[in-house]
Amino acid sequence: MNQDYIKPDNWSIIEEGFDVERVKSSESLFSIGNGAMGQRANFEEAYSGPTFQGSYVAGVYYPDKTRVGWWKNGYPEYFAKVLNAPNWIGINVEINGEKLDLYRCRSITNFRRELNMKEGWYQRSFDITLLNGIEVSVKSVRFLSLDLDEVGAIKYEVTPINHDATVVFTPYLDSGITNEDTNWDDKFWDTYDLSQQGDSAYILSKTMKTEFHVCTGMLNQIFLEGEQKNIYPKVETNSTYVKLNYSIVIPKGKTAGIVKFGGYTVSLNHKEKDLASASTTVLKQASESGFDALLDLQKKAWSRIWEMADITIEGDVKAQQGIRFNIFQLNQTYLGKDARLNIGPKGFTGEKYGGSTYWDTEAYCIPFYMATKDQVVARNLLTYRYNHLERAIENAEKLGFTNGAALYPMVTMNGEECHNEWEITFEEIHRNGAMTFAIYNYHRYTGDYSYIPEKGLEVMIGVARFWHQRATLSTDKNKYVILGVTGPNEYENNVNNNWYTNYLAKWSIEYCIENINKVKAEYKSDYTRIIEKTNLKQEEINAMSEVAEKMYFPFSEKHKVYLQQDGFLDKELISVSDLDSSQRPINQKWSWDRILRSPYIKQADVLQGFYMFEDQFTKEELALHFDFYEPFTVHESSLSPCVHSIQAAALDRMDQAYTFYLRTSRLDLDDYNKEVEEGLHITSMAGTWMSIVEGFGGLRIKNDTLSFAPKIPKEWKGYTFNVNFRNQILKVNVSQEGTSFNLEGDHELLIYVDDKEFKISPNSLITI
Amino acid sequence: MNQDYIKPDNWSIIEEGFDVERVKSSESLFSIGNGAMGQRANFEEAYSGPTFQGSYVAGVYYPDKTRVGWWKNGYPEYFAKVLNAPNWIGINVEINGEKLDLYRCRSITNFRRELNMKEGWYQRSFDITLLNGIEVSVKSVRFLSLDLDEVGAIKYEVTPINHDATVVFTPYLDSGITNEDTNWDDKFWDTYDLSQQGDSAYILSKTMKTEFHVCTGMLNQIFLEGEQKNIYPKVETNSTYVKLNYSIVIPKGKTAGIVKFGGYTVSLNHKEKDLASASTTVLKQASESGFDALLDLQKKAWSRIWEMADITIEGDVKAQQGIRFNIFQLNQTYLGKDARLNIGPKGFTGEKYGGSTYWDTEAYCIPFYMATKDQVVARNLLTYRYNHLERAIENAEKLGFTNGAALYPMVTMNGEECHNEWEITFEEIHRNGAMTFAIYNYHRYTGDYSYIPEKGLEVMIGVARFWHQRATLSTDKNKYVILGVTGPNEYENNVNNNWYTNYLAKWSIEYCIENINKVKAEYKSDYTRIIEKTNLKQEEINAMSEVAEKMYFPFSEKHKVYLQQDGFLDKELISVSDLDSSQRPINQKWSWDRILRSPYIKQADVLQGFYMFEDQFTKEELALHFDFYEPFTVHESSLSPCVHSIQAAALDRMDQAYTFYLRTSRLDLDDYNKEVEEGLHITSMAGTWMSIVEGFGGLRIKNDTLSFAPKIPKEWKGYTFNVNFRNQILKVNVSQEGTSFNLEGDHELLIYVDDKEFKISPNSLITI
């Protein structure tokens, strides 16, 4: 842990006291988003201290020309950068001629931030004495509307404490913004129109190259003592900003405020020519409702989300705060309405990593969204990949594959590969298997087979074709081998026969063929369409099948475990616990080659396979592999501890499971990795959710229904979680005494608890 | 082959006719150098077409801050860039008010370049009709003096053909130059003084960060019809240039010319405060001798070089031209006078690759310099590495090694590592063994053991310590393994147990211990000093010895060959000849991952080991390995064909040997790799020399003396080469009829020819 300034609280993230050193961390932690846009918790008023400005629009990116030290054939030409979008939250405040600036003042007291996760708003308040001696109290409340997702609202209030004061509020729009992350200092935005009328204004700009057109708009209202005032603003503009200056005299002790409605309309959702009018319309709609009414809607919308997604933990406030923070951020990032969007690793909280979509979505996020939302959300995430199938085929073609083989990208915005490290881009190909796994997982959980004939099978065929072509026959072994890969454990590069990759390849081919047969038998017209489109021949299926059948798996007879890759046993097998602690984290202390030749595992690799295909192995095999690999695992990826936590729980090692859980749940709040300034680890938050639901709760799908094996850390009194299973909500309450289930739905549900069958009637509670 | 505009000629490189498209290629091919400085064949007069300007000063570089896509721990902070130095060759020419510019004129005829390799000068001549209708004949001759190596001289002559003409010659110095290769567009030079007096001027500038101070000077003389004229120049200066304008009226048919002496004095060789006066003095000395006298000295100096280094080929002009071009360029780049200098991969002909020193020097260049120069030259090259030993130890420490283990850099200027690709920088560690091999090779050839107790043993100990620490015990194999390396074949990265690397490691340790024992027995005071300095203990020697003894070598029982690395037989072993030619060169046609998992070999790897340690294997073993690996070798490195050529010759496969030879000897002249614009492949030129002397001539050291196995390609009538062996020159003349040897020396020399002993008396000829 590197910080502990966040106050423990069941429902809110709270910071008290102002510290310049914490500003960037808090800008990340107090980020808000509504799935369509999001922003770091930058101050509305001017701030001359260190800050990382960020406001992001879902789906809007810039293809930044690749810059690498040494070019390798096959590298993509660009990296899709997450774009800092025009600023609409800015409100400069001048008090008796002095600019309000927390970095330049006499003193600040009572500084407080609160991110209310229950209701979805962010508030900041403080008392400040300016250099000119004026003392004022400031409070601002901000939220991004879930109901009108093109709108955010700010209520910014100032109360002079020791004198009457002349305050100038200057709400502005500014498209002259820059990215921290840029390869060539390119200009990312081109502003081509700017308009102001009364209290409203907008800026029309488009991204360079990608030509996303965005209208950034604002509409302002001025209040004194709660009463709206008509003040004619003084207007300032240049080519990239428009500022409205509202001057108002505030008597000592009275409160004046500005309500600013702002946000974006985007050409993804509107015709270019309609962007300005759409912006004007939606802002007018918001302002007519008014700030308070819109905030009420916000609270209701969040209440609906929590109804399905909440996890409660009794007896551990910090754990409670941690899990809710994770669930809250996931919901701020992606709500599943739009199949063109996905879950970026930093969500709307920073620029780092770029792109929006990694295999994190398929491996970690889909289970969360399946269990806490309507199944259409997970289906939209699958459809996202279906819509990118042509690009995945092109991507594979760039690497020399043919005949409709598809390689999904490591990182992408629009389906094209962005990443540019050969050992990842070209070699971390296990990601491709996750596409098929997600389809399997979706069908297993939702029971909705229709996705497969409609869309999923085409994806599976592209993926299976890739594995078929990527595996090669070793005449030496008379087995198919997969050479030159990087597994989920990125502390190994360019290895041969990574067990996880080979296993996933074999399984992806087999599952594809199984579904080809099923679709052939049961969905004839879909089958005909797909065969025609993919030009799939029986000989190719036979050849694929042979690859799966004769796939090679490195295995140690001595240890009775599958080896992470060929040659793993040649390493110096010193366990992490025997490593001097001064050497860790190895990714900061060791050169890359030393990491590579060490046995240390960044994140679950063989164990990731055991997690995904748990039912294909015995518990004894799981224990053998867990005991073999866990001691070498350094968990230097945020995606790692959750898998180990789930497996430790499955093996009844609750102390270990709890330890792993703690590493994930407050990763950002306590800034374990010393990098929260750059943004939050959004996708790994889904892993934290899995640690509780699949780990402690033991949720699995067995015999086409829910199965549980509830356990509870001794540190907790109890915990609850909800799962949406095929349109019924099952509420699970685990305590030290036992587990109760409450079904909200309309028909009886058969479930397994510790492998025993139970039937639960709708709207009834059973306790076990 | 991609070009064939160079006219075949035994002694000169000749281009006829002007072609804008060839300018940059010719700038490389006609480069001149004298070991202390060098320059591309840029025009003296202004040229507004595409050109790559380059003038380079030996040992002067800039540490350009590393720029990579993805930082890996252990990367060096900078890359030493070869620096384009201030321009001293420039002479603007104005004719009746119009600037002479080959890119903007009515017509050019009789354009001709000649690089006279026999005498060491470069000439260019052409007739040009300007836009203003004036027709003039231009001729310029240029050389960099071998005798005064801080001086170059240009004689630039203009003859009006159709009218009298007023010509303004504007010789200038310009330090406002830039690099093509720069990571951050840094400013590389800072100019701090500028002075002009009469016909002379100088500019003092220093490199940023490294603070090399360089005085760039010039001294001009104007001639009309061969008679020197005193013309008072008009002076123009700004902060980075000084120009002298000489105006002269030339009657039609008469010739006026400017002789410009210029060059650099450098703080590597002078005190900073003396740079300007040193420049003035040496330029005065040159001008007092005069252009023609200095050129006569140049011819004599080159004659002395050729006396020892020349190879003649009868019956094949292009082969003759090719081999002389290689020998000439090697001598232009490095003359062995200064142990601070080394042989850059592009010499003084371009910026690419940066740095100056690769393992090319130890593996390819030292044999050439040993056989064609006094042995002090090779000793200087070894001393260069001895002087960098402390830096090599620091470099190893950065990667986690301890106790004086040394890792020599992949690329360096001053001993620090510059390169920044993890798979090369951290993993291509076989380079370290080349340091020990070069010492062994030097002793074997020269018989001079003194270098080892004096300097070499310390290097060997540092290297052996590295291998000791880098190898790890595989408890699975009960053998020492070396994991995560890149061998000479850079089409494999991060492999385990590269045979060449393991073999070199074992040998380096054994040879080091052998010499520790010898120095202990025979050089007691050196031994005491070394043991004290290195703190080497018997236990460490024992432990090293165990690593060497128990080193693991991958071997195929089926094929009876050592495997290039673990798992090589799992590849799809399709030979290059079965590969569709549209797929080649694979480094342009295939993505990097596909190259990596293919069996294709960029340059000799196992065979490189067989080349270096030929006497440790039988001819049958060589044949087995050659037959196994040659079919997979694509020779996409300029350093590859020479090794195969030598081995094919040793195996009596002269057709194959000749084919490989052709690939190396005219690599740049015929621009096989389509990149000669960027500069020449200097270090691989030594490989071409080896192909003839060690390949066709069969030169080896056996029983402490020279051994030959002369063969001759059927395409040639005969060839000759000379070798300096322990201060006697042996001239070898091979023809289709037999071989004759002529010894220039003072004592009888025993040699082997086809394993039979012969005694050669001084100054006598024997024919076999």
Topology of this structure?
The structure is a homodimer of 768-residue chains.
Chain A: E1 12-16, H1 23-29, E2 32-33, E3 37-39, E4 55-57, E5 61-65, E6 78-82, E7 91-95, E8 98-99, E9 107-116, E10 121-129, E11 135-144, E12 152-160, E13 165-174, E14 189-197, E15 200-207, E16 213-224, E17 227-229, E18 234-237, E19 241-250, E20 256-266, H2 275-289, H3 291-309, E21 311-314, H4 317-333, H5 360-372, H6 375-387, H7 389-398, H8 422-425, H9 430-446, H10 451-470, E22 472-474, E23 479-481, H11 499-522, H12 524-534, H13 538-549, E24 555-556, E25 561-562, H14 586-589, H15 592-597, H16 606-612, H17 619-629, H18 641-650, H19 654-665, H20 682-696, E26 700-702, E27 705-708, E28 718-725, E29 728-735, E30 739-744, E31 749-753, E32 756-760, E33 765-767
Parallel strand pairs in A: 27-31
Antiparallel strand pairs in A: 1-9, 2-3, 3-4, 5-6, 7-8, 7-13, 9-10, 10-11, 11-12, 12-20, 13-19, 14-15, 15-16, 16-17, 16-20, 18-19, 21-28, 22-23, 24-25, 26-27, 28-29, 29-30, 30-33, 31-32
What does this structure look like?
The structure is a homodimer of 768-residue chains. Chain A is α+β, with helices and mostly antiparallel strands and 768 residues long. Chain A folds into two domains: 31-307, Distorted Sandwich (Beta-galactosidase, Chain A, domain 5), CATH 2.70.98; 374-634, Glycosyltransferase (Alpha/alpha barrel), CATH 1.50.10.10. Helix content of chain A is 32%, strand content 25%. The first copy, chain A, contains 20 helices and 33 strands. In chain A, strands 1, 9, 10, 11, 12, 14, 15, 16, 17 and 20 form a ten-stranded antiparallel β-sheet that branches. Chain A has a five-stranded antiparallel β-sheet with strand order 8-7-13-19-18, with no helix packed on it. In chain A, strands 21-28-29-30-33 form a five-stranded antiparallel β-sheet. Chain A is globular, with a radius of gyration of 27 Å. The model of chain A has no long low-confidence stretch (mean pLDDT 95). At the A-B interface, strand 22, helix 14 and helix 15 of A face strand 22, helix 14 and helix 15 of B. Chains A, B: This is Glycoside hydrolase family 65 protein. Chains A, B: Substrate binds at residues 359-360, 602-603. Chains A, B: It comes from Aquimarina algiphila. Chains A, B: Belongs to the glycosyl hydrolase 65 family. Chains A, B: Keywords: Hydrolase.
